[in-house]
Design a protein that fits this description.
14 strands, alpha/beta, 401 residues
Length: 401
């Protein structure tokens, strides 16, 4: 077991990575920029503050640091924020890592490459077209100096990655969110988009984070690795793909105000170097990812607290919401709780945030319960002598004579 620190652990990819590493038996710590989000295994750190960053790293003394924290849009709209967080924040993490000899995975971005006409490999020149790409490129290149100085640093450049729970500020989750709202009657049947001719390369976030420890363990020190599907898809085609997953009649509305002058027309990656180095291949197709994202949104997405969302799962299964607060040991002993639910309750009992990966499993189980219907109250199960599953993926047990 290794002690791991994830900067940006409460972000989209960070949450998935934290859940994966915990499942693998590691001791996982995280950082957050928000004081109210700090907890037993989360430290509040403004990575722009070198002193505080070094203090937390020395206190925790992690074996590995996964540096995911960064900003894609400045909160105050200031250009300097990109560089303060993405560049100088990275430098502060690397300087702190030196004090405890931690290994560091620096998560860069495909946007360091800028605009190119063909699939991009690691030898493609860096030509960022905006401050986000420029600030990430500066941090990416600065990490090389630390590797040359003896620090175990590996760099990774992920292309677009998505999945259940991603902010609708990004193209695929905004399509999926709009679809769910249209189906619920909360939005007119129109997809509102900007540049629909842009071509992007999408991977599932779960495939991305699975590659991170592989690269830190087996990647060459100082080297950089792309993470990509190698398959480009136009935003218009993506929208049509999402539309086809619903019976709703949806039209596409192009809004010029959503288009950006610095938009990159084509961004597709070549991850053959990564595949050869660590044997990484994708396990989720784009269709798989879309299926899970739409299931997530149809099930309510991030609305409400985690307790409420898990409670809603119980409600669909004809159990009282109060059962959410039964002890995990009682549920496990009764044979009634799903593996995902048992794990979620353990987190809740400790007062910790339930990882999104586990909540997603519960949402899947909830969908299975909706499909098979019916159900029995926990207190009405008399003997529990024999049980079987009513539907693949559904955890509800029934007792038969």
């Amino acid at each position: 077991m290794r002690k791991v620190l994830i900067t940006g652990a409460q972000g989209f990819a960070g949450g998935y990575l934290a859940a994966q590493l915990r499942e693998q038996g590691h001791e996982v710590w995280g950082t957050t920029s928000r004081a109210e989000a700090a907890g037993e295994h989360t430290r509040q750190v403004d990575l722009r503050n070198a002193t505080r960053t070094a203090e937390v790293v020395r206190e925790l003394a992690p074996h590995d640091i996964y540096h995911l924290a960064g900003i894609t849009r400045p909160a105050l709209g200031l250009v300097s924020e990109y560089y303060d967080v993405n560049l100088y924040g990275t430098l502060n993490v690397l300087e702190a890592a030196k004090t405890v000899s931690a290994r560091v995975l620096v998560v860069s971005s495909a946007y360091v490459y800028g605009a190119h006409d063909t699939p991009i490999n690691e030898n493609t020149p860096l030509r960022p077209v905006n401050h986000y790409g420029s600030s990430k490129a500066a941090a990416d290149l600065a990490a090389i100096s630390y590797a040359l100085g003896g620090l175990h640093v590996v760099r990774v450049r992920p292309f677009n990655h998505t999945g259940p729970g991603q902010s609708p500020n990004f193209v695929l989750p905004t399509l999926v969110r709009q679809l769910a709202e249209i189906e619920a009657g909360a939005q007119e049947p129109v997809f509102k988009l900007g540049n629909v001719e842009s071509v992007r390369d999408f991977c599932d976030v779960r495939d991305m984070v699975r590659a991170y420890p592989l690269l830190l363990d087996r990647g060459d020190v100082g080297a950089v690795y792309n993470l990509a599907s190698g398959q480009g898809i136009a935003v218009r085609t993506l929208a049509e793909k999402v539309m086809a997953l619903s019976d709703a009649h949806i039209r596409l509305d192009i809004e010029p105000a959503r288009q950006r002058a610095t938009d990159i027309p084509y961004l597709v990656g070549d991850a053959s170097k990564t595949e050869a180095a660590v044997g990484w291949t994708r396990q989720y197709s784009l269709d798989d990812t879309l299926h899970d994202m739409i299931g997530w949104e149809r099930a309510g997405g991030r609305e409400g607290t985690q307790a409420e969302r898990i409670g809603e799962h119980f409600g669909v299964c004809h159990l009282s919401t109060g059962d959410v607060f039964r002890s995990a040991k009682q549920l496990e002993a009764s044979g009634y709780g799903s593996p995902a639910l048992i794990r979620a309750l353990e987190y809740m009992r400790r007062g910790e945030l339930v990882p999104d990966e586990i909540v997603l499993e519960i949402v899947r189980e909830r969908a299975a319960c909706l499909r098979c219907g019916g159900g029995v109250l926990l207190d009405e199960i008399p003997g529990r002598s024999r049980r079987r599953r009513r539907f693949p993926g559904c955890w509800r047990n029934e007792t038969f004579p």
